[in-house]
Design goal:
It is built from nine helices and no strands. The chain is mostly helical and about 200 residues long. The longest helix is centred in the middle third of the chain and has 27 residues.
Length: about 200
Amino acid sequence: MPDIKHFDPDAALDTVVRLFWRQGMAATGIQDVVTATGLNRSSLYATFGGKRELYLAALRRYMERRSRPAFRRLAADERGLPAVAEFFDGLIETRCSGEYARWGCMISNAHAGSENDDPEVRALLDHHHQELRNAMHAALTTAEAQGRLSPGCDPNSSADLLALLAYGVNLRSRAGANKRDLSQTVTTALSSLGGRAPS
């Protein structure tokens, strides 16, 4: 058996994250992983397990490295609505330009893919959704305390709305929507909550 210590599992997993993120689970085979990482099948199986286990590891890595830091910043930001606006500005910028433009979000892509039939995948997606929704709720609660929400605006239902809006941005950007249109939609949504305050 090959000596699996001759490669960096973290670096290999980062490569696999990008592969599954761009192509999705269904369209990615083990040979694609072998080609992208330069590793042989024995090393991959010995380190990560099969394709399903590798995908789950990649999904967890994406959440840890990309989703959670953004959620934590939003939840801890004491500006309220400007923090939400900044979150969406960054999301749209990332989804529409740069290295990962038009890749969408690995989590949103999984929601739309057949892999969400897997109970472990579904549990990760549900957990991600709750973390996103909680971050939105924290920012909206701050805005409410500042008197910045529109009368009758409920932070609970509004957090659900904004979480769904984030998924929509991810999916529409992957389909080719441009920054201007996505930004206009977000601005309209935030205005209905209490106005898009300057960052």
